[in-house]
Amino acid sequence: MSVAHNLEQEDFETQSRLQAIIDTAIDGIITIDDKGIIETVNPAAARIFGYDPVEVIGQNVKILMPEPDHSQHDSYIQNYHRTGIPQIIGKGREVLGRKKDGTVFPFLLSISEVKLKNKKIFTGIIHDITGLKKAEDALRESENKINAIIHAAVDGIITIDKRGIMEMVNPSAARLFGYEASELLGKSVNVLMPEPDRSSHDGYMNHYHQSGQRRIIGIGREVTGKRKDGTVFPFFLSISEVKLADRTVYTGFVHDITQQKLNEERLRRYAAELERSNLELQDFAYVSSHDLQEPLRKIQAFGDRLKTKDQPNLSEQGKDYLDRMMNAASRMQNLINDLLSFSRVTTKAKPFVPVDLDMVLTEVLSDLEIAIERTQAEIIRSPLPVIEAEPTQMRQLFQNLVSNAIKFRKENEKPIINIYAKHIQKKAHLTATPGDEVTDIYVEDNGIGFDEKYLDRIFNIFQRLEGHKYEGSGIGLAICRKIAIRHGGDITAKSQPGVGTRFIITLALKQPQEKTI
């Protein structure tokens, strides 16, 4: 075998290997002549553009380009042949291609110039980056969403590096501390802290980096911040640690609790004042039940002796005086007992338990059976709910209201009393906290009614709109209101003289755990 034949064989094998590499390449490879006519297209390029190779070989390469490149490509080649100045040859860049079906897609194009013996050709390597661009777009969209959330967040968000230098401050955080965001970026986060936190912060960061012991990171707590104008305010701070590829950053979420703390302080003072008032009421109740009742008992006892032993010796006027004295003592006794009942709503309160109001109402109506029969009262009732309450006080509440409806009836007209309930959810989606859901209990009658200008008076202790025409001390509705308030609600009324009255009692379905006094 001759040397020439061997060289020819080696050349053929080399070309075969090169062709195999080109045909199996993942990226597209296209060669064109110096006029832009396609000479070769490997399978990957044909697949990328959606053609069969035979459909593009012999065609101008610009059929693979969208506008404006499609129209400008010939002039670009001519300009290169004339000036020798390349715009893309030997450089590579991201361009757009046009598939057979008309869709446009991005790809990286690198072009090399090859000078053969008798002509010049250009080889283009095509790397489809459609998936990469989609991923970049998705990442960009995700970043935009995150940035939009951060910038629109109600709470402040601040990101710092390991040295405590602020890298990001959202508008809410800047507004909360009284700065522009640009005033804080690049500064230590301790400018937002009053003493002693300001001086201690760097030491805390160093201690955490050395020991890994956390005081607030991943835990959260209430802290104090310092505004630009020097004023301080409370906020809840939660910090998360984020490990990036080359470093660690910390993101703090700042929730202003100024109003919450003010409300807590008002509530604390109110509770202290309420406790003091309750203690005074207990003292008053003790005085009422012991110190006041003792002389009253003596008046009644000696009055009874006078009536029993010396009544024959008294003049008619003396007997009248004695009767008046005994009646006044009796009324005084009733007032003291009613006052004790009013004070015991809270001073002798028992824990809340589930109470079936339907059952309570049934028991109350049973107790009032004689009064109902005597007045021929008609009771209309609808199902009432089960709530957390004190059973005795619920009995007291219904007893007072139904008794009132019977007492303040019209002459020569039987009382009609309608009792029903409505469930109220104060805010949509909120049912977890005691007080979110309440029941309104309605007690309606057709009695004498009253002018609503006296509405505020009827629930005050010892207030009586009808003077002495009706028996009682005028404390019953005051007790009802105190019971309703203790059960997370209140009581009001709608009424017209001669038409009747509707009492609306609001009671919470659930009660917080409480300490009895």
Automatic annotation (TrEMBL):
Pfam families per UniProt: HATPase_c, HisKA, PAS
Alphabetical keyword list: ATP-binding, Kinase, Nucleotide-binding, Phosphoprotein, Transferase
E.C. code: 2.7.13.3
Enzymatic reactions: ATP + protein L-histidine = ADP + protein N-phospho-L-histidine
Domain PAC: from-to ranges: 91-141, 219-269
GO BP annotations listed: regulation of DNA-templated transcription
Domain PAS: 14-67, 142-195
RNA-binding keyword on record: no
Coiled coil: none
Record carries keyword GTP-binding: no
A GO MF term: ATP binding
Residue ranges of domain Histidine kinase in the record: 287-511
Function: Putative oxygen sensor; modulates the activity of FixJ, a transcriptional activator of nitrogen fixation fixK gene. FixL probably acts as a kinase that phosphorylates FixJ.
Record's protein name: Sensor protein FixL
